[in-house]
Automatic annotation (TrEMBL):
Cellular compartments annotated: Membrane
Keywords: Hydrolase, Membrane, Transmembrane, Transmembrane helix
Name of this chain's protein: Integral membrane protein
Main localization (coarse): membrane
Domain Peptidase S54 rhomboid: 149-297
Length: 488
């Protein structure tokens, strides 16, 4: 199964700089630092299997497995091998990633006598030196070992060219969407912390085993999980391939998370003989999703990048126009159905939410209309026309004495000041005087006065400053207002 969001074209404006640098670092590590590692590893294992060191370690390794007890499958596999050479090769391969083996051997109790132990120490030292010259072995993740350096460094190692190519393609595709939504530094933080989270999940799953892990896929899985939560309900275009079926479809980004996570957990259960770290993928997805949820909740997301990523679904079909025609003909149920579809796909569209309110109002569904109106006011409108539309609705609701939460009015006032939709702000601020602390009110009045000045409305600027100085004289902003009035 393949689910891949292909939602934003790669252009000069959207080029993900940090993603590209991460790709270059991975390529440099593989083609530079890891160059020749596979050949050196195979040469070392071949020399080991035919050496006196293997003769000494093979029986000691068997005794160690018996003492460990929890490695029964490994012991059975070792004993099932026929001949010294296969057994030597098995020990050499397994002990490359088993950090507990050499310290256990250094106790000496697994050897027949002191002479065998002394010979082992003499032969093991140059072999360990040879292995230390292999970059991959120095930095890959080893089970049952908590090493902060390996937790990060192993995410930049790859087994072969195909492994590298596949990971880098996914990194560029996901990185384009996540780096654009978070910015370069937050994106880099998610990538590195995601690598650590994915590797910790792998360590927890394999603790006690003789296993190793490497590759960027855990960190990329974290970016995928982060993407789902950061983009949330925003519809995205993605490519799917399941068996012989493949196509492009649109769906909320959040829907991809259970699909991705379910696929990794399914493979973890049924493909335990594979060399793919599905547990790291699942851990990375969860870790990235948690980081994405925090970033989205704390407002550290570039909403403009997400909203402008591609034309809305409503623009790509005629549902909006059809809904407007239904409203004009008073075919309200038909209009409501279309508007509900658009609202689910594009919950931040002020015009859609406002149309849903008008349909409910025209249908005489007062309670539903009031609830929809409050939902319109809660939309984080991103431009002045949408904010003005919210202001008109706010005035309409006030005229009908509909109870509007203080938080909603306060959020609207701040939004209107930012976008320069100043007509309704003074009335809203006056309605907040009994419900909001003086320091909050004085700051809003001061911000409004400065926006009037920037817009060239000197009379409104002076009026707001005088109101601030008279109504909130003890606040720091009042002192600033008096200074501006004296020097106007």
């Amino acid at each position: 199964m393949l689910l891949l969001p292909l939602h934003r074209p790669l252009t000069r404006a959207t080029f993900p700089v940090v993603t590209a640098l991460l790709v270059l670092v991975n390529v440099f590590v593989f083609l530079g630092l890891q160059a020749g590692d596979n050949a050196r590893m195979q040469e070392a294992l071949a020399l080991y299997a035919s050496s006196r060191l293997a003769d000494l370690e093979a029986p000691a390794y068997e005794r160690w497995l018996v003492e460990r007890g929890g490695r029964g499958e490994e012991l059975q596999e070792f004993r099932a091998l026929d001949g010294e050479l296969p057994r030597h090769a098995f020990v050499g391969q397994n002990t490359l990633v088993d950090r507990e083996f050499v310290p256990a051997m250094q106790t000496g109790r697994f050897f027949d006598d002191t002479a065998a132990f002394d010979e082992w120490r003499r032969l093991r030292a140059p072999y360990d030196t040879r292995l230390q010259s292999i970059t991959t072995l120095r930095y890959l993740l080893r089970s049952s070992e908590f090493d902060p350096v390996r937790l990060v460094a192993s995410a930049f190692l790859h087994a072969d060219l195909g492994h590298l190519f596949g990971n880098m393609v996914f990194l560029m595709i996901i990185g384009l969407l996540v780096e654009g939504a978070l910015g370069p530094w937050r994106f880099l933080g998610v990538h590195l912390l995601g690598a650590v989270g994915a590797n910790l999940a792998s360590l927890a799953f394999h603790w006690g085993d003789a296993a190793g892990g490497l590759g960027a896929s855990g960190a990329i899985a974290a970016l995928m999980g982060c993407f789902c939560l950061v983009w949330g309900t925003q519809p995205v275009r993605f490519f799917y391939w399941i068996g012989v079926w493949f196509d492009y479809v649109r769906a909320p980004a959040l829907w991809l998370f259970p699909a991705w996570l379910g696929w990794e957990l399914f493979n973890l259960l049924v493909r335990d003989d594979s060399n793919v770290a599905f547990e790291a993928h699942a851990g990375g997805l969860v870790c990235g999703a948690l980081m994405g949820a925090v970033l989205a909740k704390t407002g550290q997301v570039r909403v403009g990048f997400i909203r402008d990523a591609a034309p809305d679904a409503a623009v790509q079909d005629d549902r909006w126009e059809r809904a407007q025609r239904h409203i004009g003909r008073m075919q309200l149920p038909e209009a409501d159905r279309l508007l509900d579809e658009l609202a689910k796909e594009s919950p931040s569209r002020t015009d859609v939410q406002l149309a849903r309110y008008r349909v409910a109002r025209n249908a005489g569904r007062t309670e539903q209309a009031d609830a929809r109106a409050l939902h319109v006011l809660d939309v984080e409108a991103g431009n002045a026309p949408d904010v003005r539309a919210q202001g008109e609705l706010l005035a309409e609701l006030a005229g009908r004495t509909v109870a509007i939460p203080v938080e909603t009015r306060l959020a609207f006032a701040r939004r209107a000041i930012v976008h320069g939709a100043l007509d309704e702000v003074e009335r809203v601020l006056q309605s907040l005087e009994a419900d909001v602390p003086d320091e909050t009110q004085s700051q809003l009045w001061f911000d409004l006065a400065l926006r009037h000045r920037d817009a060239g409305a000197q009379a409104a600027h002076v009026r707001c400053l005088r109101h601030l100085a008279q109504r909130h004289p003890q606040q720091p902003q009042a002192a600033k207002a008096r200074f501006l009035l004296e020097n106007a």
